[in-house]
Amino acid sequence: MNFPKRRNIKEDLRQKLVIVGSKNPVKISCTEAAFHQAFEGSFLVEGLNISSGVSEQPYGDEETYLGAFNRAKNAKVVFPEADYWVGIEGGVDLVEGEMHAFAWVVVIDKEGKVGKAKTSTFFLPKAIVELVESGMELGEADDKVFQRTNSKQENGAVGILTNGALDRKEYYQQAVVLALIPFLQRELYAN
């Protein structure tokens, strides 16, 4: 007969430290909300300025995923005492000539297990696409088109374009929860 593993009560009660590979308050806030939504227990979530190692505006799935992975991996190198490390990277890509935006999320735990997920996507208006194609980062393009300042640390393109029906925190939070599935279902995602 297989009995469940005995849980270490002290370990369960200890506050877990989560490091986000960014100082962006939206990325920190969505990560904190997602961990509290997915797990019981107490989490302290902190952000660090970590390089993504990719372009300022990642293009395509591969580069955007690599940016998220690098943020999580490099956060672990910088602060190895944490319990989890999270990388979130927004990117753009073309589908039939139209540009859409999305983000990748990567979560790494102490054992090296990796969880990953991608947000839903949404298409960008021509005015923003032209600026991004000219070399401008999406957040800068949003600010220019919508006369905002630092919108990527607030509602971002998704919040602006949905008139606030979906803000950047909610948009990223769902993907962070999805990236936590391998940690919620450890037996099913054993190496």
UniProtKB/TrEMBL annotation:
Keyword annotations from UniProtKB, A to Z? Hydrolase, Magnesium, Manganese, Metal-binding, Nucleotide metabolism, Nucleotide-binding
Q: Does the keyword Magnesium apply?
A: yes
Top-level lineage group: Bacteria
Cofactor annotation remark: Binds 1 divalent metal cation per subunit; can use either Mg(2+) or Mn(2+).
Recorded catalytic activity of this chain's protein = ITP + H2O = IDP + phosphate + H(+); XTP + H2O = XDP + phosphate + H(+)
Q: A single GO molecular function, which one?
A: nucleotide binding
Please list the residue ranges annotated as the Non-canonical purine NTP phosphatase/PRRC1 domain.
21-184
The residues that hold substrate are 81-82
Q: What is its EC number?
A: 3.6.1.73
One GO biological process term is: nucleotide metabolic process
Which residues bind Mg(2+) per the record? 81
Q: Which PANTHER family match?
A: NON-CANONICAL PURINE NTP PHOSPHATASE_PRRC1 DOMAIN-CONTAINING PROTEIN, PTHR34699
Member of which family? Answer: Belongs to the YjjX NTPase family.
Its quaternary organisation is:
Homodimer.
Q: What is this protein called?
A: Probable inosine/xanthosine triphosphatase
User: Origin organism of this chain?
Assistant: Cecembia calidifontis
Upper lineage is:
Bacteria, Pseudomonadati, Bacteroidota, Cytophagia, Cytophagales
